[in-house]
Amino acid sequence: MDFRKTFDKIPESFDKYRPRYCKELFQELEIICGLNPEKKVLEIGPGTGQATEPILKTGCDYTAIELGENFSSLMKDKFGCYQNFHIVNADFEKYSFNENIYDLVYSAATIQWIPEEIAFTKTYSMLKPGGYLAMFMTRSNDASTNPALKDEIEKVYDKYFRVKQKYNCKMDYENVLNYGFENLEYKEWKNVRKLNADEYICYISTHCEHITLDEPYKSNFYAGIRKVIEAAGNEIVIADTIPLYLVRKPL
């Protein structure tokens, strides 16, 4: 199973329920990377554009490369009104890019799906000397803020969560320095979300393993999740960390 294509099955839900990124992150990129209409930018795997519009609004020459056909279509509908918007429906790993053409290549929770030797070597080649690679994502923690509720949720997982394939994508982002990049900068921002049972279920339903759940486990699993959250006051608190890894190709 190619998990990379799983999300493309639920474009509308993915667009509605995935968390967005904070404005401070995009302000950081705009300032450090000097984004303006003279700059060329590539976004790897934008999905439905959770990290797209703030970059488009800088006026840069923006291109996205997106594997999913449904995602690509939705992106065109959302952002086709921008004259600086371009999208390629293709596999980043297989697509041939020209060398030394981008001022910024960035990934919002996507690059970890690509083997690092491909991801880092290819982005290095694509960037102009002095160009930036930015990698960011949302790391969510619902255990530290709801310890008793989390224990009950884990019991539901143990009883009903039966998937054919486990998510096992891991990337050490600091390894990027082994591929010629320099000046690694790390920053992070914090956010808190409070969701009721229905909102939480809609949110976790956009996770790759959850999308693949079959019946009867699927119905029993979500019924169990709803029951324990409602019993805890119908609220679960999620503490989000948004980390940014930013490196530069030497001049």
Instruction: Specify the number of helices.
Output: 9
In N-to-C order, the SSE pattern is HHEHEHEEHEEHEHHHE
- Calculate Rg over CA atoms: 19 Å
How far apart lie the N and C ends? 41 Å
Number of DSSP strand runs: 8
**Beta content:** 25-35%
Tell me about the largest β-sheet: 8 strands, mixed
- Average of pLDDT: 95
Based on helices, strands and strand pairing, what is the structural class?
Answer: alpha/beta
Helix content: 25-40%
Rough outline: elongated
Low-confidence stretches: none
Structural account:
This protein is 33% helix and 25% strand. It is built from 9 helices and 8 strands. Helix 5 (116-126) links the parallel strand 4 and strand 5 (127-136). The chain is elongated, with a radius of gyration of 19 Å.
Task: Name some characteristics of this structure.
8 strands; alpha/beta; 8-stranded mixed beta sheet; 251 residues; elongated; single chain
Summed up:
The protein has 251 residues and is α/β, with parallel strands linked by helices.
Secondary structure elements and their pairing?
Layout: H1 11-17, H2 23-32, E1 40-44, H3 53-56, E2 61-66, H4 69-79, E3 85-89, E4 102-108, H5 116-126, E5 127-136, E6 139-141, H6 147-160, E7 182-195, H7 197-204, H8 208-211, H9 217-231, E8 236-248
Parallel strand pairs: 1-2, 1-4, 2-3, 4-5
Antiparallel strand pairs: 5-8, 6-8, 7-8
Helix pairs in contact: 6-9
